[in-house]
Amino acid sequence: GPRPISDQELADGKNQLVKSFPQQFQTIGGIAGQLGDLVLYDQPLNEWRTYVRRVTETDQAQVLDMARRHIDPGAYQIVIIGDWSEIEAGLRGLDLGEIVVMDSDAI
Known about the structure:
mainly alpha, 5 helices
């Protein structure tokens, strides 16, 4: 079932977003893409000036609220490839719902 993200997951996610942010502006194409996104999503031109602060100030409640508003878990499927005899017990223990097993010929 649904669970809130852990403190470590939140910190890791924030760190990844903050550390990768400058890379989005390393090339002319990257800069053009970012400017295009500002126009496409009707954002102000100074949107990126406050990005890092907004990311670092985001808390678990905000992440959970955003996820509830924008993610429909029922619309996703998980595909796992492996030796069924080795992974079955672990997968069933995750309580993911219905599991459909297919061999490689059926895919």
